[in-house]
Amino acid sequence: MKDVFILAIESSCDETSIAIVKNGNEVVGLSTNTQIPVHEKFGGVVPELASRMHTENILYVLDDLLEKTGFNIANINAVAVTCGPGLTGSLLIGIEAAKVISYLFNKPLIAVNHIIGHIYANQLTKALSFPTLALIVSGGHTNLVCMKDNYNFEILGSTLDDAIGEAFDKVARVLGLKYPGGPNVEALAKMGNPTYKLPIPMNNQSLDFSFSGLKSGIVNLVHNEEQRNKEINKADLACSFQNIAVDEVIRKLELAIKKTNIKNLIVAGGVSANGYLRTKIEELALKYSVNLGIPDLKYCTDNAAMIGAAAYYLYLKQDFSDLDLQPRPNKSLN
Ligand code: KG4
Ligand code: ZN
Fold it and tell me: In the CATH scheme, what is the code of domain 130-294?
């Protein structure tokens, strides 16, 4: 079969990212402009600023990609874009850019679900084997999924309240750490010990998650200690939180492995960059002789290469979109 080159665009949140991906698993080139230094000043993503910066930057990112790869855009087979979930205004900029490229170069347009993109980031590191369990740990989602084949998702468990990344971000804010919270909580946790007693998430046999009790426990603890003028050991608190949150994910993952007896496991989403989580998952995979895939660190957080990887299977199915494609800010996995 002839090689397939997909130009992929990701702009769902605060990264303007464009990639060219060959056959769904080889990154020909990737260019990303991150808006973190701007949003950092506000303690989180400001949607209006995000979409304005996507507008300002997207052509520069495209130019940079084409210049450094030397790739002729007329030689792509299709253009793919994240259609949701994400911020409406941010998604819109990527979608409009993709439509223009699709129209001008007469190439099919492929709409990709952002979460499915995170799953297929694995394909850039190691080929997927089916059936596989997929653990999704991101800013907006925490799911345990069974994939029997490409684009076949059965949700085994979900968060009943906050996503794990959301909990990391909230704890970061309470501890006075900068946005994005997750990596900063991890860095601080490395300097501490798990000394704080915090609410343990629900200890049942379901595969659902809950992080709001743990999150509120930390908010209340910090508030109470402040009222009593007592010093908080922030590194110990960050470490205590990270251990409890990650250990809970590991416990549910172990339960899923035992329940399903599936011997392949992949991990997806921004929190999969967390070193403590990566180590714990590696230990678990070893214990149950599970074939483990975790994306390279550079493909864990938002990037367009993962969108190009996920788009490849839609390309093979000729699952194309029309030029009236609209953002789907609340799009779910299925
Ligand atoms: O997967 P992602 O892009 O979010 C969604 O698509 O929803 O990941 C962003 C999330 C944020 O909550 C961020 O704080 C978290 O991933 N994150 C981390 C780390 N790196 C990113 N959380 C914990 N440890 C990290 N090293
Ligand atoms: Zn993401």
Answer: 3.30.420.40
